From TrEMBL:
Origin superkingdom: Bacteria
Organism of this sequence: Algoriphagus aquatilis
Family: Belongs to the group II decarboxylase family.
Cofactor: pyridoxal 5'-phosphate
Pfam families in alphabetical order: Pyridoxal_deC (PF00282)
Entry protein name: Pyridoxal phosphate-dependent decarboxylase family protein
InterPro entries: Aromatic_deC, PyrdxlP-dep_de-COase, PyrdxlP-dep_Trfase, PyrdxlP-dep_Trfase_major
Keywords: Decarboxylase, Lyase, Pyridoxal phosphate
Amino acid sequence: MENPKPKKDLTLDPENWDQMRELGHQMIDDLFDYWQSIRDQKIWKPIPAEVKDFLDQPIPETGQDPNEVYEDFKKYIFPYNKGNVHPRFFAWIQGTGTPLGTLADLLASGMNPNTTIGEHAAMYVDRQVVNWCKQLMNFPSEASGILVSGGSMANITALTVARNSFGEEKIRQRGLKAASAQLVLYCSVETHSCIQKAAEIIGLGTDAVRKIGVNDRFEMKVNELETQIQSDLSQGLLPFCVVGTSGTVNTGAIDPMEELLAISRKYGLWFHVDGAYGALAKLDPNYSERLKAIEAADSLAFDLHKWLYVPYEVGCTLIRDAKKHREAFAITPNYLLQESRGLSGGLDSINNYGFELSRGFKALKIWMSLKEHGREKYAKMIAQNNRQAEYLADLVNQHPDLELTAPVSMSITCFRMKRADWDEDQLRRLNREILLRLQEEGIASPSSTILKGKYTLRVANVNQRTRMKDMDLLVSEVVRIGHSIHTI
Ligand SMILES: *Cc1c(COP(=O)(O)O)cnc(C)c1O
């Protein structure tokens, strides 16, 4: 019997492969033009209302030619980029990305392996990259790790292991009610907000987060930490974890790692390091000693989309005790059974080490980038950013109308324009206006923060495109704009 001839099977592959191939080449050309001319472009421009309207239209019911779709992208999206690919982007802490990293993401997306389980090359690349991360951080080879979407996920992953590893209470099985009293976590007032969010999500609650005060350099006060631990113990609470930050998001401050480690050991607490921004500063010889104790931490979270400059998104959690790591997450339902052979053979499933099941092939951009440049080049790049931040601080110190608002640590420089006879409120408005004009004129993008009541321009540099001369320009433009403002 003959099968009835199908009318036409549907597919999402292109009707015209040659056209799509040509479009792909065009996209790559456009990206390369963009990167190569980025220095001459405005760092940011406001989004016109017409564009916002276009990006508010309802779902298309019928399709469009891919070339037209790409034209829409070029008209409505591409020109209004955030700017963190630009050499003078210094807002928040955001990496630049690299051409090969981008191409790696294209390849990863084209191969499209769900990198969580099974016998295929991506699993081995992922494992190798996690091993390279351990080597970057000088973690023992028996430690475990997982690549996640970023620092926030990396931190909550580590804190979940810390919580589940607490005592003999079987918290994973029985929940927090298994603990005889409230578990308490310690960090500083300068700790990133994701630590508090993580504590809330893993069931500790905001009240269980002790935010210890900081010294003049914005580093956690160790004496206060110890006093707080003792006071909590005396009230029958259960201190379980100290979070030290290597590179705070505000000022790049480094908590006293050795002391935090010693206190954690003394009281039997889990020592976690949030190195989302600054753990990689270990590669700069000027910082390696101060960050040495990271190597002894029970867990470490750090971002690769910040100071390894790879495109978004990817962060890493490392856990010293691989067994505890696996015990916090491993679960094997019937549909995820592993085999000793075939497609379901191979390495331990990655979802035994974190919450996410489906995972992209984000390891590839790190793998290709580390092979392209090698560890030594990254060490020099990170050191270069740190020297640029110090150079900017020198320029600020040399200028009579500018002042630093925090000591420079790592690659963050905080400063502001000052004016004799102007009060704090006027200085806040002056510096805010300088910041907004810098951004709106497309010159440079610092961000702002408030340090000890002082409104501050904040220049955070994890930018692989920045040159020393960008710091000269930044300072001269701040001064130019500032001097053009007489009343506010
Ligand atoms: C950026 C940052 C985070 C959050 O990381 P994401 O990658 O943005 O999720 C946490 N802690 C510190 C210190 C950071 O700098």
